[in-house]
Amino acid sequence: MLPALLKLAMKTIEKWKQKVRGLKEELNALYLACKDPRTPWYAKALGVCIVGYALSPIDLIPDPIPILGYLDDLLLIPLGIVVVRRMIPPVVLAECRDKVQGLTQRQGRNWIAAGAVIGIWMIAAIWIVRWFINY
Q1: What is the chain's pLDDT, residue by residue, as a tens digit (135 residues)?
Q2: At what angle do helices 41-55 and 111-134 cross, to 10 degrees?
Q3: Is residue 22 part of a domain?
Q4: CA–CA dist 30, 32 (Å, integer)
Q5: Residue 132: inside a domain, yes or no?
Q6: Domain-embedded: residue 118
């Protein structure tokens, strides 16, 4: 009984890992599509917001809050990706997905981009704290 449950749990975890990898690749493709001149401005604007929110360490609902903390990540990011994908021309999105496949095979993590996002959020947090202190 226990080994069967363990196998089921491992299969479920592996499926979730594959979905997360696919989500990461789709976010990278959206990022590249936002840089493409053939993408409409409104798709670029929403795409930048979705990619920024996904990479941001700050959430609308903090993750330590039980259930609700992860609910925004599980709903908002995939929903945003679906909406932005419909706004981007299919040819552009297909090209960007191909580029992402090539990039993920050649390189690992991008620590510079992660550092830049964290740096921007730290500057914003410091600015907000200083603003509150002055008032």
Answers
A1: 667 777 887 888 788 778 777 888 888 899 899 999 999 999 999 999 888 888 777 776 676 776 777 777 778 888 888 999 999 999 999 999 888 887 765 555 567 777 888 888 899 889 999 988 887
A2: 90
A3: yes
A4: 5
A5: no
A6: no
Instruction: Please check whether residue 56 is in contact with residue 36, taking contact to mean a CB–CB distance below 8 angstroms.
Output: no
- Number of domains within the chain: 1
Question: pTM of the predicted model, to two decimals?
Answer: 0.62
**Per-residue buried b or exposed e for 112-135, using 16+ beta carbons within 10 Å of the residue's own CB:** eeeeeeeeeeeeeeeeeeeeeeee
> Rounded distance, CA 127 to CA 130, Å?
5
Q: How many residues does the chain have?
A: 135
The amino acid present at 15, given as its one-letter code, is: K
Please indicate, yes or no, if residue 123 is contained in any of the structural domains. no
Longest dimension (CA), the chain: 63
